[in-house]
Design brief:
Blueprint: H1 2-51, H2 60-67, H3 71-80, E1 84-86, E2 89-90, E3 97-99, E4 102-104
Antiparallel strand pairs: 1-4, 2-3
Length: 106
C-alpha cells in the first residue's frame, strides 16, 4: 500500500508540472497570435493610408475580413495602439454613434 501511494504522489506531481508547462506554452502562443494580428492591422491600415485615396479609414467589418480577427480583437487593437486613430461616425437623422472606423496615423 505504501508503494502505490508513492506512485500516486509522483504521478500527481508530474501532472501538476505538466499543467503549468502547457498553460505557459498556451499563453505564449496566445500573445504571439495577438501581436501578429496587431501588426497585420497596422500594416494594412498603413498601406491603405499610403495609397492616398482617402485617410485610410476602413470599417471594422472590412478590417475583420482583411486581418482575419474578430470584431472585439479589432476594437482592442484600436484602443491599445497609439498609431491607430479612432473616428466616431454618427447617423444623419439622429446623431447616434454608428461605427468607429480605425485609421492609421503617425
Amino acid at each position: 500500500m505504501d508503494a502505490s501511494a508513492n506512485w500516486l504522489g509522483f504521478i500527481a506531481n508530474v501532472a501538476a508540472i505538466w499543467t503549468a508547462v502547457v498553460a505557459f506554452v498556451g499563453s505564449v502562443f496566445y500573445i504571439l497570435e495577438r501581436c501578429g494580428k496587431q501588426r497585420r492591422l497596422e500594416a494594412y491600415l498603413k498601406t491603405e493610408c499610403d495609397a492616398g485615396t482617402d485617410k485610410g479609414q476602413r470599417a471594422i467589418l472590412h478590417c475583420v475580413a482583411e486581418v482575419g480577427a474578430a470584431q472585439d480583437e479589432i476594437l482592442q487593437v484600436i484602443f491599445r495602439r497609439r498609431h491607430i486613430g479612432r473616428v466616431l461616425t454618427s447617423g444623419k437623422r439622429d446623431d447616434m454613434a454608428n461605427d468607429i472606423p480605425p485609421e492609421y496615423g503617425d
